[in-house]
């Protein structure tokens, strides 16, 4: 029995609902494609209405729509390339078996080079060679009808059905947090493997995987973060903080802060003096609550202007220092993460500037940095505890 079990694929379990959804989708796709083609050709036509490879395409488009082999360019490009190769080889090589072998081999090579590998397209190339007198009589017309006609109709059916069924098609990789457009890696990428590590392993593996590379990385990172729950230990702020920090000057216009937050997908800006010392901090809340926004941009309301004038004994000028929070809570690079957790929990802060002993900005630490790092440290300590002594 173990010998027979080795022939079974180790696929993840799929619910009955998903199996039903896939089967019904293939039924709808083939039915609609056939009906539209028959309507377009009319009764009594000698042209083929449907070709057999469309059945294999339906398996991919409706059962595994997230597969790279099932994406629109794979379907259209693969069938186009394979049909052209099949017709050409069939015209040039008299022996049908040699022509079939050449057509399949050349089609696979071209599809892989053009990144449109689609397994049913191999059957398209074979059909062009071995399809019989009716197919041969079409010549290069076989590429247009039925191959491209069937392919386009099947693709339209797949897009409509998958979206109605709640699937994303064409497939997009699993969403990841937006980068900040700085040299720092995302928080989750600062522990565990890197994207370069994954690319290197895939290059060494040197085989085509039927999974999107972005999906693969996202799945591995999620699995890695879950494994961090088993670890604990001590880490300092220096090991997890972002070092390439986007900051703003106190005399900068308020609108500049909004543009920086938008362009870098961040929520907080340290305010620094000319010598890089932290003098305050500006958050999304500051931008929303303190100035009044109108068609001409942000402006200070009468109440805030009066309050600032009384506090500073001078009129505000609508700059960052008029809305920033100051003084600002900071931590040092050698602050333990456990202390940062307590500080954030007590104050409700989501970001803390990290400063050197002289007050110069060294980095910034966020809740996302903290969560990932604590999970990683927990994982490390659990592994140490499991080692024999």
Largest sheet report: 2 strands, antiparallel
The multimeric state of the shown protein is single chain
The tally of strands reads: 6
CATH class of the largest domain: Alpha Beta
- The CATH topology of the largest domain comes to CBS-domain
Name the overall outline. elongated
Residue share in helix: 40-55%
Structural domains: how many: 2
Please identify the structural class as seen in this structure.
mainly alpha
Order of strands across the biggest sheet?
1-2
CATH superfamily of the largest domain: CBS-domain
Q: Kindly state the mean pLDDT as a whole number? A: 84
Distance, first to last CA: 41 Å
Helical segment tally? 15
Order of helices and strands: HHHHHHHHHHHEEHEEHHEEH
Strand content: 5-15%
Radius of gyration: 31 Å
Which CATH architecture of the largest domain? Roll
Any chance you could write out the topology, listing elements then pairs?
Blueprint: H1 2-5, H2 16-41, H3 53-63, H4 72-92, H5 96-113, H6 120-130, H7 133-138, H8 141-164, H9 195-205, H10 213-227, H11 254-264, E1 268-272, E2 278-283, H12 284-289, E3 291-294, E4 297-300, H13 302-312, H14 337-347, E5 351-355, E6 361-366, H15 367-386
Antiparallel strand pairs: 1-2, 3-4, 5-6
Helix pairs in contact: 2-3, 2-8, 3-6, 3-8, 4-5, 4-6, 4-8, 5-6, 14-15
Task: Describe this entry's structure for a reader.
- It is elongated, with a radius of gyration of 31 Å.
- α2 packs across α3 (53-63).
- Helix content is 53%, strand content 8%.
- The chain has helices at residues 2-5, 16-41, 53-63, 72-92, 96-113, 120-130, 133-138, 141-164, 195-205, 213-227, 254-264, 284-289, 302-312, 337-347, 367-386; strands at residues 268-272, 278-283, 291-294, 297-300, 351-355, 361-366.
- By secondary structure, it is mainly alpha-helical.
- The relative contact order is 0.09.
- The strands form 3 sheets. A two-stranded antiparallel ribbon has the order 1-2. A two-stranded antiparallel sheet has the order 3-4. It has a two-stranded antiparallel sheet with strand order 5-6.
- It has 2 domains: 14-164, no CATH class; 173-389, Roll (CBS-domain).
- The longest helix has 26 residues, at 16-41.
- A hairpin with a 5-residue loop joins β5 and β6 (361-366).
């Amino acid at each position: 029995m173990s010998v027979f079990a080795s022939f079974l694929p180790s696929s993840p379990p799929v619910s009955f609902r998903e199996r039903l959804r896939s089967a019904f989708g293939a039924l709808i796709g083939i039915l609609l494609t056939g009906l539209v083609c028959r309507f377009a050709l009319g009764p009594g036509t000698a042209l083929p209405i449907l070709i057999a490879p469309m059945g294999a395409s339906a398996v991919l488009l409706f059962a595994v729509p997230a597969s790279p082999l099932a994406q629109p360019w794979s379907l259209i490009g693969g069938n186009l390339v394979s049909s052209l190769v099949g017709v050409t080889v069939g015209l040039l090589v008299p022996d049908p078996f040699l022509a079939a072998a050449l057509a399949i081999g050349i089609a696979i090579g071209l599809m892989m080079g053009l990144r449109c590998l689609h397994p049913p397209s191999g059957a398209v190339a074979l059909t062009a060679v071995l399809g019989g007198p009716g197919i041969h009589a079409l010549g290069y017309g076989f590429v247009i009808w039925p191959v491209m006609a069937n392919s386009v109709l099947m693709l339209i059916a797949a897009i409509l059905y998958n979206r109605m069924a709640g699937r994303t098609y064409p497939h997009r990789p699993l969403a990841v947090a937006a980068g900040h457009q700085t040299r720092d890696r995302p928080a989750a990428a600062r522990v565990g493997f890197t994207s370069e590590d994954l690319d290197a392993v895939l290059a060494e593996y040197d085989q085509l995987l039927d999974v999107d590379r972005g999906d693969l990385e996202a799945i591995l990172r999620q699995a890695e973060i879950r494994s961090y729950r088993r670890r604990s230990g001590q880490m300092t702020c220096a090991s997890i903080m972002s070092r390439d920090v986007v900051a703003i000057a106190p005399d900068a216009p308020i609108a500049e802060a909004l543009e920086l937050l938008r362009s870098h997908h961040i929520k907080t800006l340290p305010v620094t003096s000319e010598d890089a010392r932290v003098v305050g901090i500006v958050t999304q809340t500051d931008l929303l609550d303190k100035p009044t926004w109108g068609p001409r941009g942000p402006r200070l309301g009468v109440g805030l202007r009066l309050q600032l004038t009384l506090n500073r004994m001078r009129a505000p000028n609508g700059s960052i220092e008029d809305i920033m929070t100051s003084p600002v809570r900071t931590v040092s690079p050698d602050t333990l993460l456990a202390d940062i957790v307590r500080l954030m929990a007590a104050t409700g802060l989501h970001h803390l500037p990290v400063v050197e002993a002289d007050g110069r900005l060294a980095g910034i630490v966020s809740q996302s940095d903290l969560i990932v790092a604590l999970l990683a440290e927990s994982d490390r300590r659990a592994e140490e505890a499991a080692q024999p002594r």
